[in-house]
Amino acid sequence: MKQLRIGVIGTGRMGRAHLERLCTAATGCRVTAVSASRHGEETAAAFGVPLVLSPEALIDSPETDAVLVTSPGESHAAYVLACIERGKPVFCEKPLAPDSAACREILDAECAAGRRLVQTGFMRRFDSHHAELRELLAKGGLGRALMVHATHRNPDNAGFTDELQIMDAAIHALDALPWLLGGDRITDCLALHGTSAACVGERQRDPMLLLFRTASGVLMDLEVFSHCRYGYDIACEIVCEKGTAALPPSSSVVVRECSARRVREYDIWHERYRHAFTAELQCFVRNARQGAAGGPSAWDGYAACAVGEACLRSLESGIWETVDYGEQPALYAE
Ligand code: ISE
C-alpha cells in the first residue's frame, strides 16, 4: 500500500513534536508539507519536508492525502471543516474547537459526508496503563466502579486562565475518565476552589476541584493544578465494590544509591505520554491509509467540550450544572 502523504498545520511545540514522531517513529507515512507559520521554513528544513504552504493550500494540495492540525486551539475548527469538505482524513489536537457549538458544526459536516474522517488528539486512550485499567474494569472482577479520584498537575502553565485550565488541561480527563468506565457519561459537574497558589494570585483559581456524577451514579473528583511546581503528575484511582485499581505513579525508574532511593518526576507531557503519542499517530496513519478514521472521534471531542462548558458554568454559579449533549448522531454510535 502507498505511503500516506501528510501535511502538518502548525509547527509550534506540539506540531514539531508530532512531526518528529511521524518522521522517526511512525511507519507507512511521510510528511510532504508543513504550513507556512512562524516556524514553517525552519521546521521544513530540519525534517527535510519538501513543501511549505499556507494552511488552505496545504489542505488542497494533491501532495496531501491527510492532515494533522496542531495549530493554536482557536484555529482548529476551520481547518478540520476544510479537510472534511475535501474528504481528507484529519487528526486534530485537542481541543477540537473552542466551544461545543463549533464542535457541533464539525459533527454535522462529518454526518453530511456520511463517514468519519476526524481523529481527536486524546492520547491517554493510547497509554498502556489507561488501557489496562479500562480492560480490568470491563472484566468486572473488582465489581462495579463506585468512585474515581483523579489528579492532573502541571509544574507550571504560564499564561494559563481558569478557562484554559478546564478546556485545555482538564479536558484530557473529561474524555479519559468516562472512557475508563466503559463510556459512562458525565451528567453533572460542580467546580470548587479554595485558596490559590501565591504565584497565580488573583489571576487564576488554581488549584481547582471538579466533581462529576455519571449516568450510572459514579462520583468522581478531579484536582486540576497548573502550578504544582514539582512535576507533571497524572493520577487516577478507581474505587470498586471489591477493591481499587489505579494508574502507577507517573515518574522515572527507581534508583537506589548511597543509602537512598530516588525517582525523577516527569516535567512535561511529552515524556509521560511518549509511547501514547506515537500510538495515536500510528492509529491515524493506519486508518487514513484506508481513507477512514478511528480512535477518539469528533463526538468524543464534542462531548469533552460540553462537559468543560458545564464546569465553567459551575465555576461561576457555584452549583451543580447539568451537561447537555443533545442528540448523538448514529455515525458515532459505539
Ligand atoms: C497541554 O496543552 C496538554 O495537552 C497536556 O497534555 C496537558 O497536560 C497540559 O495541561 C496542557 O496545557
Short description, anyone?
36% of the residues lie in helices and 23% in strands. It has 334 residues and is α/β, with parallel strands linked by helices.
Can you describe what's shown?
It is a single chain. By secondary structure, this protein is an alpha/beta fold. Helix content is 36%, strand content 23%. The chain is built from ten helices and 15 strands. The protein has helices spanning 13-24, 40-47, 55-60, 76-85, 100-113, 128-139, 162-180, 269-272, 274-288, 298-317; strands at residues 4-9, 29-35, 51-53, 66-69, 90-93, 118-121, 145-153, 186-193, 208-214, 219-225, 233-240, 244-246, 255-257, 260-262, 321-322. The strands form three sheets. The protein has a seven-stranded mixed sheet with strand order 12-11-7-10-9-8-15. Strands 3-2-1-4-5-6 form a six-stranded parallel sheet, with helices on both faces. A two-stranded antiparallel ribbon has the order 13-14. Helix 5 (100-113) links the parallel strand 5 and strand 6 (118-121). Helix 5 packs antiparallel against helix 10. The longest helix has 20 residues, at 298-317. The protein starts with a strand and ends in a 12-residue tail after the last strand.
